[in-house]
Write a structure and sequence with these properties.
With 415 residues, the chain is of the alpha/beta class. It is 40% helix and 18% strand. It has 16 helices and 16 strands. Strands 2-6-7-1-8 form a 5-stranded parallel beta sheet, with helices on both faces. It has a 3-stranded antiparallel beta sheet with strand order 3-5-4, with no helix packed on it. Strand 6, helix 6 and strand 7 form a beta-alpha-beta unit. It starts with a helix and ends with a helix.
Length: 415
């Protein structure tokens, strides 16, 4: 058995899936999708296993999965459904001389899309001779498409529902309601603070939506992943390393899967060992492993934006000496502070101030400067591309939250 079969950060785990029996999530979701006329709403933090839960309960082959990212109009959503259903299209070809240009198109019901012979939708302006193929889709309505989903026997799962434009949500949810009443099984997946988007889009859905809340994983729950996996490879892992992995995983089973898999690679455990063996890491090897996993987080662009801060006008920002060498302004200091100490997805203002004082020498930034910095970081995070909301500053509660554990992990272990 290969280590990549045992530890699977990006797919449904076969050998290391842990059901979290105290929460009974599988049964809750099964009850929801098994109830006629009910829409299941699965909510939970980023990378907490929401999609894996759906895959486990519904089955990969029984899911028709559509992701909400990039859906800014109703036709885009229905075209994704059409694509997943592999609905046939009529086609014709023609040839001639014409102009080509840098173009793009969105398919909608009854729309025609023209492709070059190479199958490309983009090109530079110019005169060219080419053949063209015209694909015309039958004008099938959303309700009819959902009826086809029902007849296919599949469950429609709309992942990242919160990324869909609010106005588009309203239109879709109205059709979801009618489709659910007609027997179509539908699941919407979102983050906690947007878990009620379906009801907010259509208040008439109250009583027709059943919520399944996926909470943050505890460190003890996370420990079950290596406990299930390493025996499959005849590897005995020191309990202190498992504890460290559980701490650094930041409540994310996906991060724990990544740490375990990269541990196997560091120890050259590509497949099940011939004999049961105890494996361990030195402190230096462990740090190197944690840094290696950070490379998969792709957080550098977000970090650069946050650390740069808004453009300075007038007086330059104060510079502070960092403990261990180097210097930086208040933005650098705050980021260094929240990356220090024990990993926590939520930090209070007082905890941030304590950490700021611990990462610099000399007088720390004032409280008002720290709050202003956190506010500006929150504003910058809101302007980042959709799906890249790496942190949130709640000015009322005076707490800093990390919706995506991978960014905080990157912040802690970037090289």
């Amino acid at each position: 058995m290969r280590s990549t079969e045992v530890f699977t950060p990006g797919t449904l785990p076969k050998y290391t899936y842990y059901e979290r029996p105290d929460l009974n999530l599988e049964q809750a979701l099964l009850d929801a999708v098994d109830t006629p006329g009910i829409i299941a709403a699965v909510s939970g933090p980023s990378k907490s296993g929401k999609t894996v839960l759906c895959e486990s309960v519904i089955g990969l082959n029984s899911m028709l999965l559509v992701t909400g990212g990039g859906i800014d109009s109703e036709p885009v959503f229905w075209q994704r459904i059409r694509s997943r259903l592999k609905l046939p299209a009529t086609a014709s070809t023609s040839s001639g001389v014409g102009k080509s240009g840098e173009i793009g198109a969105k398919a909608s019901a009854g729309a025609k899309l023209i492709f070059s012979a190479q199958g490309e939708l983009e090109g530079k302006f110019g005169k060219s001779e080419q053949s063209q193929s015209t694909f015309e889709f039958d004008p099938i309505s959303g309700v009819e498409l959902l009826e086809r989903v029902r007849k296919s026997g599949k469950t429609l799962v709309v992942d990242d529902f919160h990324y869909i434009d609010r106005e588009v949500q309203k239109v879709l949810v109205e059709q979801f309601k009618e489709a659910a009443r007609a027997g179509c099984t539908i699941v919407v997946v979102a983050v906690p603070h947007r878990g009620d988007d379906a009801i907010r889009a259509n208040p008439d859905l109250r009583g027709r939506v059943r919520s399944v809340e996926v909470t943050y994983w505890s460190e003890e729950e996370l420990r079950n992943i290596p406990r299930l996996g390493f025996p499959k490879l005849n590897a005995v892992l020191d309990a202190t390393i498992i504890d460290r992995f559980a701490c650094e995983s930041l409540s994310s089973p996906q991060l724990m899967q990544s740490l375990c898999l990269d541990f196997c690679r560091a120890q050259h455990i590509d497949q099940t060992l011939t004999d049961v063996s105890t494996v361990t890491l030195s402190d230096e090897q462990l740090s190197r492993l944690l840094q290696t996993v950070a490379k998969t987080s792709n957080g550098q662009t977000a970090l650069d934006i946050l650390e740069k801060g808004p453009r300075v006008r007038g007086t330059e920002r104060n510079s502070y000496q960092l403990l261990g060498g180097g210097s930086g302004d208040v933005y650098t200091v705050v980021l260094r502070a929240i990356a220090s100490g024990d990993p926590k997805l939520t930090l209070t203002y007082s905890e941030i101030r304590e950490r700021v004082a611990s990462v610099i020498t000399g007088e720390p930034p004032s409280g008002s400067s720290i709050v202003s910095t956190l506010t500006k970081m929150d504003e910058a995070a809101q302007k980042m591309r959709q799906g890249d909301r790496v942190l949130e500053w709640d000015s009322e509660k005076e707490t800093l939250n990390f919706p995506d554990p991978y960014f905080l992990y990157f912040l802690r272990w970037r090289c």
